[in-house]
Design brief:
Helix 4 packs antiparallel against helix 7, helix 7 (260-280) packs antiparallel against helix 9 (336-402) and helix 9 packs antiparallel against helix 10 (408-443). The chain has helices at 2-26, 31-41, 43-64, 115-182, 187-221, 249-255, 260-280, 311-317, 336-402, 408-443, and strands spanning 28-29, 69-79, 83-84, 91-92, 97-111, 231-232, 286-298, 320-328. The protein is α+β, with helices and mostly antiparallel strands. 24% of the residues are buried.
Length: 449
């Protein structure tokens, strides 16, 4: 009975997981939904969020370091042989004696070269850096998803063009067969059309495979198991009235200064400055304030009148409070302070170079995006004009071929050229759209379609 229940439970769990995955696969995924899902489920982002929590804990610790430390201790000792009676400092020989002590102590640095203050500020910078790293990972995954999403849309359009071309050639094959049977076209024309139809079929299969590959790539970015039922929303990307990109690289670069990549590098440089100050603080003397409160009991002690000295009375009479101020002056520490300062200064210089490198790379990437957007726009417009020309040529060839004035080779070449021109236009269009989205990304505009 128990085994049957377990089998039913396992079956229900399997079914629920399957239905959940099926429902998720049958959803229509917009670009915005894909990005939001990746932000919530990407393992790299989740791992970086753990780093944020770790830095929050470190910041709390840095704050608590300003509170004086407090420690308490209690001890009970058994002594044989020779020992000292703490009550009257007499020597006790060959006698078992017991003693109990209790104390509490506290200490705080009054002056430490501003090490704690700089450490606190450095911890706060570390937290801000880790938060910016989360945002940087979100930006990177957003761009990757947008690229993959557009690749699927590109594959869909090429597949649609391939199927349309295949259907047109298939219909032409049927007409050519009738023309051959009526004697208007030679049999070789039918063979050439059949060959072209086979080529068109290969193009359809290739386009289908490319669509599958690009869909798989997007689902992997989303950490979803592959499903043939996965569907994305198909926005209207009509660029019939598109105009040339008129963007200024310097203006976009100014907007991009708020990007997490740059902010993280700047915060790291600020943290490097604070770490250097912390290291320099080790050169300065330290002043500490300490206080303690203790008492003890000894079994070998007696009251002044020689009677037994009770435990709690000894604890009361032996109270020993103390306060002390200490001054620590660093003189020679095996060059450790000097070495730490040098390393902190070198780290700070490295962080400054890292910031400059990232700023240079960002500026170059923006230049490339603007230039490529203009290049792909011109390429798209040229491809659009080429498609219009090829469509007109195809119409003319088709009329001539049906009238018997052209052979099958001319028709095949015209159909191949039309599909090639259409594919080039579709590719140029989506390359242009992607570059526009990259420019929006640098401007701080959310990626949408």
């Amino acid at each position: 009975m128990q085994a049957t229940v377990m089998k039913h439970t396992a079956a229900l769990l399997t079914l629920s997981v399957f239905l959940s995955l099926t429902a998720k696969a049958q959803e229509i995924w917009t670009l915005e939904k894909c990005i939001e899902y990746a932000w919530a489920n990407n393992l790299s982002i989740q791992q970086q969020k753990i780093e944020v929590s770790r830095n929050e804990n470190q910041l709390l610790k840095s704050k608590l370091d300003f509170i004086p430390s407090l420690n308490a201790s209690v001890g009970h000792n058994f002594n044989w042989g020779r020992s000292v009676d703490l009550q009257n400092l007499e020597i006790i020989r060959n006698k078992l004696s017991q003693s109990t002590s209790a104390s509490a102590s506290t200490s705080v640095y009054l002056l430490d070269g501003f090490s704690k203050i700089n450490t606190l500020r450095s911890s706060r910078k570390s937290l801000e850096i880790s938060i910016q790293e989360v945002e940087r990972l979100k930006d990177e995954i957003s761009v990757s998803i947008a690229r993959s999403y557009l690749q699927i849309l590109l594959s869909r359009e090429i597949l649609a063009a391939a199927r349309e071309s295949f259907q047109a050639v298939s219909e032409q094959r049927d007409r050519t067969k009738l023309l051959v049977e009526s004697g208007s076209q030679p049999y070789s024309s039918l063979l050439e059309i059949e060959s072209q139809l086979a080529t068109e079929r290969v193009q359809v299969v290739t386009a289908e495979n490319q669509l599958t590959t690009n869909t798989l790539a997007l689902m992997q970015l989303l950490d979803l198991p592959y499903s043939a039922d996965f569907r994305i929303a198909v926005p209207d990307i009509s660029l019939s009235t598109a105009s040339s990109v008129k963007e200024n690289t310097d203006d976009i670069y100014a907007c991009a200064q708020s990007m997490p990549l740059i902010q993280s590098a700047r915060l790291a440089l600020d943290k490097g400055d604070l770490d250097l100050k912390t290291a320099l603080g080790q050169y300065y003397p330290k002043i500490s304030l300490s206080a303690s409160y203790g008492t003890f009991y000894s079994s070998s002690s007696f009251a002044p009148d020689g009677s037994t000295y009770p435990f709690f009375e000894q604890f009361r009479d032996n109270i020993n409070p103390s306060v002390s101020i200490g001054l620590s002056i660093p003189i020679f520490n095996n060059w450790s302070v000097r070495t730490n300062v040098k390393n902190a200064r070198l780290s700070r210089e490295s962080l400054e170079i890292d910031l400059r490198m990232k700023e240079q790379t960002l500026y170059k990437d923006i230049q490339t995006a603007v230039t490529e957007a203009e290049t792909f726009f011109r390429q798209m417009e040229a491809a659009r004009a080429n498609v219009a020309s090829m469509e007109e040529s195809m119409r003319y060839v088709k009329e001539k071929f049906n009238a018997g004035a052209l052979n099958g080779t001319d028709y095949t070449v015209a159909r191949t050229n039309l599909f090639k021109a259409t594919s080039e236009y579709i590719q140029a269009k989506y390359q242009y759209v992607f570059q526009l989205k990259i420019i929006d990304y640098y401007k701080g505009i959310p990626l949408t379609l």
